[in-house]
Amino acid sequence: MPDTAANQEVFPQPSSQKPGVGFPLARLVAVISLTTGALRALAVGPYSGKETGETALFRTLWDQLKAGEIVLGDRYFASFCGIAPLVQRGIDGLFRMHQKRKYDFRRGRLLGVEDHVVCWTKPERPDWMDEALYAQLPEELMIRELRVKIQNDGFRVNELILVTTMLDPEVYTKEELAELFLQRWNIELGVRSIKSVMQMDVLRCETPSMVEKEIWMHLLAYNLIRTLMARGAAAHKKEPRQLSFKGAMQALGTFREPLQWTQGRRRARLWEVLLQVIAS
After folding, report:
1. Which of 134, 144, 220, 267 has the most CB atoms lying inside 10 A of its own CB?
2. What is the pTM of this model?
3. Sign (positive/negative) of CA torsion 123, 126, 130, 133?
4. In the chain, where are the structural domains located?
């Protein structure tokens, strides 16, 4: 965002940048629907400083999640204190194994080849967690660990170690869990649409309050376009994830003026054609 004193005070530039030549930087953590690509919740904070990391911002969004949902996340979120509060809310998780955690498929309850259930024990209370919340956490957590092979072109790794709270191998097969986690890449595409296609990677406002308004205006437009994509997908028997966000945005731009200046049946017909174009 613009290098103003007000922006620097709330969103200070990273220490890796030299004073006077850097830019204020914000960190955003989003909960995005895997089904539609719509943004469900967002936390905004400074890029650096105490309690400004991805996991800290995600904790502020816990209460916006609903029982019965499944959270997909990368390895940053695969910790006891990150998973246990979700389980207490009736929420399942599927994450990549944290790089610092050790695993041994010879131990635990065997479910299949390189697929088992083990017991994670409660660690010492982290600095960010208050004593009341820590006391509510269980002493043990049953976690399923599994190794999956990656045969898709374009992936940097050929195998992943996953951790999940979905323990039943008959309800959640190893292959289904692997396929589900690989779909998490769609969320990265959603983030790319927000940052690059909608050009939100560089903000323009000069005060923190206007910066936040600018962010939310971008995301309002993003969700409205995702709504159009969902309508187009439903009308033409497709999945929203099969459609192009950039294509939908371009189609809406093309149809904007005709829709603005027509009424009645012609306008309704234009909406039908717009949805058909988006679906194609």
Report:
1. 144
2. 0.88
3. negative
4. 75-183, 206-279
